[in-house]
Write a structure and sequence with these properties.
Layout (H helix, E strand, L loop, with lengths): L3 E5 L6 H9 L5 E2 L10 E7 L2 E7 L11 H15 L2 E7 L6 H10 L6 E6 L22 E2 L8 H19 L6 E7 L5 H16 L6 E2 L4 E5 L2 E5 L3 H7 L10 H10 L2 E7 L6 H12 L3 E7 L7 H15 L8 E3 L11 H12 L5 H14 L4 E2 L2 E2 L2 E8 L4 E6 L7 H14 L8 E6 L2
Parallel strand pairs: 1-4, 1-5, 5-6, 6-7, 8-11, 8-12, 12-13, 13-14, 18-19
Antiparallel strand pairs: 2-3, 3-4, 9-10, 10-11, 15-16, 17-18
The structure holds guanosine-5'-diphosphate (GDP) (2 copies).
One guanosine-5'-diphosphate binds next to helix 1.
């Protein structure tokens, strides 16, 4: 499944007909969650070799009880949240109605690219109807007949670029986990990297399974491909005996951006300082998974006190990601090293986690009951529902039905709840409230 297409448009333009044509018998899922998501249909679609996920919004109107515009807007909003591209259908026989125009005006402001589709165009008879469609400001209309199948080749061409664009993002399964090892100079990064790769070589035989070039190393651990990105240690060994460059914050930020999970190496001998926390905070801001490796454990005298101190500093300074794994080890002797990669893979798994809309909303209902949202301007803030819009890291949209800001503290309540109830320590979790107005 490479990308997601939402079919949108006013009632009766042929959305369901198109959905059925695209999905055929492959209808994968009819979400039967009570409430708003009831009539949403998603399926695995195919045109020729092009495979994608399609979301149909038809029928969703009934879930709301206010104006048609309001209902359409909300149903569309939900679909757009997940879509990489939208097909806006209009009925070429009926021409452009005020409702189409109204809708297009609003749609033009969305970030999601829109392909305008003139439906019911079988046998070319309605082509003269297409001129007025330009005034919608959504580009050239693509003539199609959902019922008869005309124009599917053109639709294929129009959608193809989205597959290409999205593919590298989505083909996550076979892609190696991008791992960065960062930390202050002298923390032991290069020793650690060489130890990890050295151990791997012992396990897999000389050079087998390990490829390395100037700036990256790739190997497999426990069935998971791992790629070490832009590691200072590797580069330094490549240049002969160069002076230690200071790892500036800008440097580590650049490396963090290239990674999915980051191991922050801290020097137990120097204790856990502000610069370490700054790097850790960057990892979280960038939405990466974090594992802290406390190195040089061999020279630590009071181990318990040291560990306690590090955990406390992390909890206080990074309350956004409770439960960051802390692994103590000695890169020099290799002691404790075996705990590191399993933690990295676990964090990666959480970072990729997806929670279904029905599960989320059952959970949300419970959370709202336990602790209702506060009042704003004399009215209770109303949360309609929630969906996970993406993973890597887990990101959620919270749909509000009334105006008014949801306080930060309430969002934190939900984030902490998600972290706890769905067991997601150590990865950033994001929630953005939206008002359907
Ligand atoms: P939705 O409300 O947007 O999902 O629209 P439907 O898919 O239910 O279609 C509304 C009506 O338009 C139905 O009677 C369909 O049979 C008809 N229809 C859909 N696609 C075409 C088409 O390509 N050509 C013609 N002539 N009618 C179509
Ligand atoms: P980098 O600048 O972060 O890449 O750090 P290096 O890997 O170059 O290590 C800096 C110094 O710390 C070197 O002298 C290493 O031998 C030493 N070192 C690295 N790991 C350990 C360890 O686990 N224990 C001890 N005692 N020393 C270590």
């Amino acid at each position: 499944m490479s990308f997601t297409v939402a079919i949108i448009g006013r009632p009766n333009v042929g959305k369901s007909t198109l959905f059925n044509r695209l999905v055929g018998k492959r209808l994968a899922l009819v979400d039967d969650t009570p409430g708003v998501t009831r009539d949403r249909r998603e399926g695995d679609a195919r045109i020729g070799s092009l495979k994608f996920k399609v979301i149909d919004t038809a029928g969703l109107e009934e879930a709301f009880d206010d104006s048609l515009e309001g209902r359409m807007r909300r149903q569309t909003e939900m679909a757009l949240e997940e879509a990489d591209v939208a097909l806006m259908l209009f009925d070429a026989r009926a021409g452009i109605t005020p409702l189409d125009s109204h809708f297009a005006n609003w749609l033009r402001k969305s970030d999601v690219p829109v392909i305008l589709v003139a439906n019911k165009c079988e046998g070319k008879q309605a082509e003269s109807e297409l001129f007025p469609a330009y005034k919608l400001g959504l580009g050239d209309p693509l003539p199609l007949s959902a019922e008869h199948g005309d124009g599917m080749g053109e639709l294929f061409d129009a959608l193809l670029p989205y597959e290409r664009e999205i593919e590298p993002e989505i083909a996550a399964k076979d892609r190696p986990l991008a791992l960065a090892i960062v930390g202050r100079p002298n923390a032991g990064k290069s020793t650690l990297v060489n130890k990890i790769i050295g151990e791997e070589r012992l396990l897999t035989g000389p050079e087998a399974g390990v490829t390395r070039d100037a700036i990256s190393v790739e190997w497999e651990f426990d069935g998971q491909k791992i790629k070490l990105v832009d590691t200072a240690g590797i580069r330094r060994r490549a240049r002969v005996q160069q002076k230690l460059e200071k790892l500036s914050v800008a440097d580590s930020l650049r490396v963090i951006k290239m990674a999915e999970v980051v191991v922050l190496v801290v020097d137990a001998d120097v204790s856990f300082e502000k610069q370490d926390l700054t790097i850790a905070a960057h990892v979280i801001e960038e939405g990466r998974g974090l594992v802290v490796a406390v190195n040089k454990w061999d020279v630590v005298k009071d181990r318990q006190a040291m560990l306690k101190q590090i955990r406390e500093k992390l909890e206080i300074s990074l309350p956004q990601v409770r439960g960051v794994p802390v692994v103590t080890l000695s890169a020099l002797t290799g002691r404790g090293l075996e705990k590191l990669l399993p933690q990295v893979i676990e964090v990666y798994r959480l970072w990729n986690k997806r929670i279904s809309t029905s599960q989320l909303n059952r959970w949300l209902e419970h959370m709202l009951e336990k602790h209702p949202p506060p009042m704003a301007k004399g009215r209770r803030l109303k949360i309609r529902y929630m969906t996970q819009v993406k993973s890597r890291p887990p990101t959620f949209s919270l749909f509000m039905s009334s105006r008014g800001e949801l306080p930060e503290s309430y969002i934190r309540y939900l984030i902490n709840g998600l972290r706890e109830d769905f067991n997601m320590p150590a990865v950033p979790i994001r929630i953005s409230p939206r008002t359907g107005k």
